[in-house]
Write a structure and sequence with these properties.
This protein has about 130 residues and is mainly alpha-helical. It has one domain. The chain is built from five helices and two strands, in the order E-H-E-H-H-H-H. Strands 1-2 form a two-stranded parallel ribbon. The radius of gyration is 17 Å and the shape is globular. The two termini are about 30 Å apart.
Length: about 130
């Protein structure tokens, strides 16, 4: 499993093209783009809770997202399922890309789960050593 650390930029809509991702990288120095982390971390901070963003990446900077697929993602970063079915019926050529993205998203989620488990195991070991 590969890990990166660095700045994460949160944007209000999907960065769907390699050009859009490159511009964000140039403007912010971010290693990744998402749509929700800064909002969650801000709410945690305002509540006096510490926070950490641990993200899985389903696409890299060279991956583009067809407009038909980008339009299916809600402001919360979820897929509009009814619209997805309609989009595949209207544009069947997007189905392979949609399935590839689904596999990559599942892989990213598994990587986050593995990293979280490793982190918790490490924290537990440190706690046990200090007793």
């Amino acid at each position: 499993m590969r890990f990166s650390t660095g700045t994460l930029v949160t944007v209000p809509e999907v960065a769907a093209t390699p050009d859009a991702k490159a511009k964000l990288r140039e403007a912010t120095g971010a290693v990744a783009v998402d749509m929700e982390s800064s909002l969650i971390l801000r709410a945690a901070s305002e509540s006096g809770c510490p926070g950490l963003a641990l993200r899985g990446v389903s696409d890299d900077a060279s991956d583009g997202l067809p407009p038909e697929l980008a339009a299916l993602i809600t402001a919360e970063g979820r897929v509009h399922k009814a619209r997805a079915a309609e989009a595949v019926l209207r544009h069947p050529a997007i189905l392979p890309r949609a399935l590839k993205l689904r596999r990559a998203t599942r892989g990213a989620l598994m990587a986050v789960a593995d990293a979280l488990q490793s982190s918790l195991e490490s924290m537990t070991a440190v706690e046990n050593e200090s007793r």
